[in-house]
User: What shape does this take?
Amino acid sequence: MNKKWIKRTSLSIVAALGISCTLGEFADAKESNSTNQKQYAQNMTSESFTKNDPELYQDALDLGLTDNDIFTLDSLLDREDKATVHNPFLVAMGIITGMAAVVGTGYGAGRYIAKQLYKRKQLSKKFYKQHRWKFRAALVPVIGIAATFGFDDYYMDI
Assistant: This one.
């Protein structure tokens, strides 16, 4: 497999994941909106949190809110909004693809840094091989583990 194919496939998977989650959220929002409107009409007679607190209720009335507005606000604040995942496989693939992309980019960056140092005659392969553990220890906190592997692989001719 070449790099272009891997890149296109991973982008397609991530796009499919985004579209799946987004469309699912729209469908859930539309369904819950119609359900909530019916719920508001049915529960108008029940007492709300604000009406149970006299000071808060009076402040709401002072702001010009009606009993219907107060109940609607209380219902919206009490409702739990949870994101739903419609296809867990796509979520897992998206996470794995994202991690692979980050690691692959880091590895490529490490190889690029090593290649530039070698081409510009800043660091020879012989000197690197003699002091490789010092370079590895110094590079990991600076450029990360994946980039350090790429750097090391270039100088070790792997």
